[in-house]
Amino acid sequence: MKVLVTGGTGFIGSHTIVSLIETGMKPVIVDNLDNSLPSVLKSLEAITQTTIPFYEVDCNDQEAINQVFEKEKDIEGVIHFAAHKAVGESVINPLKYYQNNVGSLIVLLEVMKKHQTPHLVFSSSCTVYGQPGQLPVTETSPIIPAESPYGNTKQICEEVIRDTVHSSQADLANFQLNAILLRYFNPIGAHPSGHIGELPLGVPNNLVPYITQTAAGIRDTLTIFGNDYDTPDGTCIRDYIHVMDLAEAHVKALQLLANKSENGSICEVFNIGTGKGNSVQELVHTFEKVNNLKLNYEFGKRRPGDIEQIYASVDKANQQLGWQTKRSLEDGLRDAWNWQQKLIK
Ligand code: WQD
């Protein structure tokens, strides 16, 4: 299957490219390089030993996206990663987020409709659950009004896709869209080769890049945001999933779409996590242990907007996607440090 991957040089996108090629699929990358580097393409070609079609195009540019479809001809599926993702920035500049994240999805769906491209896998987020009343959180748990414009764009995009699938169910002759919405938990790690990984621009917002940059001496001290939560050690709990496990879930999603959709349009949502929660403090200690180093850290105030704890129920993904995680937290933290060390050199 030829698959258009938007945001294919980003963190999750680039790792998914590797998994797609390993499974014999043919990815085509579209990325405007707003938050990634052209060198990622070279690294991908080094890992996979293949030439990957690449278009430096903004997903909001409908004519340019249309031209990619015309040139590539037989695109059967789209994985849509490309989006802005900084929660704090989205609060300061919400229009940038609504315009880019929602606008680009609508452009893609229009072009997919024009070219009768049937399969879509969409990057959604566990942020749609807010602080769940019950853990682990399942796909049928309530969706909570988003804390940030960023989170809201993910909820709106889910609705846009659902409505488009419903309309295609009512009008099969016109456009049959099948979609899988993957709600990611917290991706960490890097490809074990150390050729690709997370490349935050400026001061990292996320925990693991902050940890690796502190270990590398780029940052002085990691601040753990709050140790007075109602959790065993007082720090927040998340479900940290290795980015290669997450990447493989996209391949399974495309395979499910190709197999299942013969009987009409489908729209399914899956949690993609490990099913296990770890606290920030546990993560720091595991990082120190597997990499045999000491991390400079201190406890600070709670970060506004943080939820206390969340982790996934992955039963649905295990059963219906036939997907399971293969890598441990230790693997993720080892691979993240390996990647950071290669970046310094
Ligand atoms: C994890 C934990 C922090 C940095 C995730 C995604 C994010 C977004 C929303 C995804 C929290 C603590 C962090 C630091 C810390 N969108 N922390 N010190 O908040 O779970 O967000 O969902 O769709 O991109 O990653 O992830 O990595 O920011 O934080 O103590 O310097 O680490 O308070 O408990 P989060 P995170």
Structural overview:
The protein is built from eleven helices and 13 strands. α1 (11-22) runs parallel beside α2 and α7 (207-215) crosses α11. It folds into two domains: 2-188 and 241-272, NAD(P)-binding Rossmann-like Domain (Rossmann fold), CATH 3.40.50; 207-239 and 275-344, UDP-galactose 4-epimerase, domain 1 (Alpha-Beta Complex), CATH 3.90.25. It has a seven-stranded parallel β-sheet with strand order 3-2-1-4-5-6-11, with helices on both faces. A two-stranded parallel sheet has the order 7-10. A two-stranded parallel ribbon has the order 8-13. It has 345 residues and is of the alpha/beta class. 42% of the residues lie in helices and 16% in strands.
Short recap of the structure:
The protein is an alpha/beta fold and 345 residues long. The chain is 42% helix and 16% strand.
What is the element layout, followed by pairings?
Blueprint: E1 2-6, H1 11-22, E2 26-30, H2 39-48, E3 54-55, H3 62-72, E4 75-80, H4 87-92, H5 94-115, E5 119-125, H6 149-170, E6 178-184, E7 186-188, H7 207-215, E8 222-225, E9 237-238, E10 240-242, H8 243-260, E11 267-272, E12 278-279, H9 280-291, E13 297-300, H10 315-321, H11 329-344
Parallel strand pairs: 1-2, 1-4, 2-3, 4-5, 5-6, 6-11, 7-10, 8-13
Antiparallel strand pairs: 9-12
Gyration radius over CA: 20 Å
Number of structural units classed as domains: 2
CATH topology of the largest domain: Rossmann fold
Which hetero compounds are present in the coordinates? UDP-4-deoxy-4-formamido-beta-L-arabinopyranose
Q: Which strand order spans the largest sheet, edge to edge or round the barrel?
A: 3-2-1-4-5-6-11
Tell me the overall shape.
globular
Helix content: 40-55%
User: Class of the largest domain in CATH?
Assistant: Alpha Beta
The chain-level structural class is alpha/beta
Number of helices: 11
What is the name of the CATH architecture of the largest domain?
A: 3-Layer(aba) Sandwich
